[in-house]
Amino acid sequence: MPTPSSPPARHPRAVLAVLTIFLLPAFARAVEPTGEQLYRDHCVRCHGPAGGGAKKGVEPLLGDKSVAQLAKVIDATMPEDDPDKIGPAEAARVAAYIHGAFYSPSAQARVKPPRVELARLTVGQYRHAVADLVGAFRPSPKADDKRGLRGEYFNARGFQPNARLIDRTDPEVAFDFGTTGPTDKFTPGQFTARWEGSVTAPESGGYEFVVRTEHAARLWVNDPRTPVIDAWVKSGKDTEFRGSATLLAGRPYHLKLEFSKAKQGVDDSKKNPNPPPVKASVALLWQPPHRATEVIPARHLSPARAPEAFVVTTPFPPDDRSLGWERGTTVSKDWDAAATDAAFETAAYVAARLNELAGTTDAAPDRAKKLQAFALKFAERAFRQPLADDQKLVYLDRQFETTDSEAAVKRVVLLVLKSPRFLYREVGGGPGGYDVASRLSFALWDSLPDDELLKAAAAGKLASSEQVAAQAERMLTDPRAKAKVREFLLTWLKVDQPPDVSKDAKRFPGFDAVVVSDLRASLELTLDDAVWGDGDFRKLLLSESVFLNGRLAKLYGADLPADAPFTKVALDSGKRAGVLTHPYLLAAFAYTAESSPIHRGVFLARGVLGVSLRPPPDAFTPLAADLHPSLTTRERVALQTRPAACAGCHNVINPLGFSLEQFDAIGRFRDKDNGKLVDASGSYLTRKGTTATFVGAPELARFLAADEEVHAAFAEQLFHHFVKQPVRAYGTTRPDELRKAFAANGFNVRKLITTIAVTAALPETKPPGG
């Protein structure tokens, strides 16, 4: 019999029930399959043990989604034969395993650590480097804030100084003198004018120059010896004359236009001894790459003269852009042949101007000595450092021992330009000052160090991050750096290769090639204003202002005179959101007659958020609007992308693109689409696993401007464009360090570029704030 202090007796079945209630859940949890087990059971048969793909047509499991984003995709779409087989909890475990094992960039870096690759010069870097190499023997272009050309007007048939009545700066050349002349002080029948200064190319490529006049004219661009247009002695009634030149972005080129009104078109025969006065006009235009012909704007002109520049015109095969930025990692036979041809082209140019470049004359007694000094400097500038004794023996002494001086110079040029020490950026690659200078100059200018940078290297003043940052800040004011920044921003916005922006003429009358060219110029002005103003990246996304001229103002509903030049105006107050709603981008990411939420969503996902998206499995053709006359564009897109095979990407793309649906195919604001109110609501699953929602472009822009994903994507893409190396090659934590430094510097784009330049020049340095 139990004592009063003994515990009450329990039935065995009761004990078993208690154990079942309290221990079974814990036991179940203990035996829940791990993410690795789930992957082996459900995923290996298609994706392979390490995500490399076990079935034909299955892409490797590599990407940049977070665990939360990856889990949502797995839950919705995997396994392909039965997506319901794995629930949300299991999907989260699988996602965590995949992400840490082989999917994420960090996991990939563990499996195959990225490294700074030995890379040759890209095509652009080659051309810029050779231009600066030859330019080192000429005066440096003088910076000038003035815009336009120096205009001189002479009351005579020639350019005699004592006949000059006007000397001024003209913003551009587009004059109708009528029948009298520039003023009433000129003889109507004959006068001359000359405009001179320099023109800066906004992008690299072929430019066609155009002079329109009823009278005599000739135009020089870069080469002062040979005009690109020579209509000084005219025959016939032509009034338009064209010539072409190859220019490199961010560089000023000497430009001179001469005009003469004499007796062209005047009937001075005996039958008409008093011929009627003849009108005179002259205009200077150009057609930049991928653009319409336009009067050369004042922003590209300067009254300061520039020395002649050498531009390699030898065609090269295109560089590899498979990773999103230009890389010089492949050396094909075609590239090697092009490099050889370019070396011969350069040698011929140098030989034709050898006395000028070497500072000598044919009769000078010390000419041979000066040609040797020229060859030494040429080699040292090309190699970015002084030559060692053994290099002098190979590249100079032996060449001058075996032949005459002029032939020796040509051989030196050829040997130097074909040397790996010129053609490869990373040859050397050490911590020495000259290597630091080279890495810095190629990062910011895609070219060789200048005199100031080489002097700093020689003096040991490129050893600290502060010293390098000071040089970088100086170099950022150079037009070459500004051109590279603009090139990056156009790449970031996915319009670096100008898209086809043609539109349905019936739907959008007046939207022609000239308008497209104006819109491109407007975008470039908007980007320049943001970066070189206060530099705040967030304003690129939030500003309501856009640059419009009179022609664009008429089309987009702004209040400007018809002949107004580009002016910064607020457009559609409260409805625009920086570059996200710039008409050029909205028109570029649209069809000929309808908007395209898919194109706009892909741009936002890939470019702004840095999301990796796979291409569609089949060629994509949008549903025709006339086949679904009652549906809006949003409804048609939702209908077409409903299948499960589309969901993985379009669950990201569509909600982003829908937020820009208040803008039509040419980027005009609209409230309705196909007679229905536009639904501009959208969403995005962030890397933290939360869903951001927004309605319309302003709300979208406010989300993006504050989002760390956007900041990180921008910083990483900027790094790749400037350094042309993978950012994780400088440390697996480098992307996050750059993002933190970006935030610590108030999201200033110029300071971020300086941080990147310091990182490239001093790879062991940690960014401040990182």
How are the SSEs ordered, and which strands pair?
Layout (H helix, E strand, L loop, with lengths): L11 H20 L3 H8 L1 H4 L19 H11 L10 H16 L1 H7 L11 H13 L13 E6 L9 E7 L3 E5 L12 E10 L4 E9 L2 E6 L7 E3 L8 E8 L4 E10 L18 E8 L6 E2 L5 E2 L30 H20 L1 H5 L8 H17 L5 H14 L2 H13 L2 H4 L9 H13 L5 H8 L6 H11 L3 H14 L20 H20 L4 H6 L2 E4 L1 H7 L10 E4 L12 H6 L8 H12 L24 H8 L3 H15 L13 E2 L2 E2 L3 E5 L5 E5 H11 L1 H16 L10 H11 L4 H13 L9
Antiparallel strand pairs: 1-2, 1-4, 3-10, 4-9, 4-12, 5-8, 5-10, 6-7, 6-9, 10-11, 13-14, 15-16, 17-18
Structural commentary:
The termini are far apart. Helix 2 crosses helix 5, helix 10 runs antiparallel to helix 11 (389-402) and helix 11 packs across helix 12 (405-417). Among the domains are: 31-111, Cytochrome Bc1 Complex, Chain D, domain 2 (Orthogonal Bundle), CATH 1.10.760.10; 149-302, Sandwich (Jelly Rolls), CATH 2.60.120; 318-428, no CATH class; 520-543 and 571-614 and 622-706, no CATH class. The relative contact order is 0.08. Strands 1, 2, 4, 6, 7, 9 and 12 form a 7-stranded antiparallel beta sheet that branches. Strands 3, 5, 8, 10 and 11 form a 5-stranded antiparallel beta sheet that branches. The protein contains 28 helices and 18 strands. The protein is an alpha+beta fold and 770 residues long.
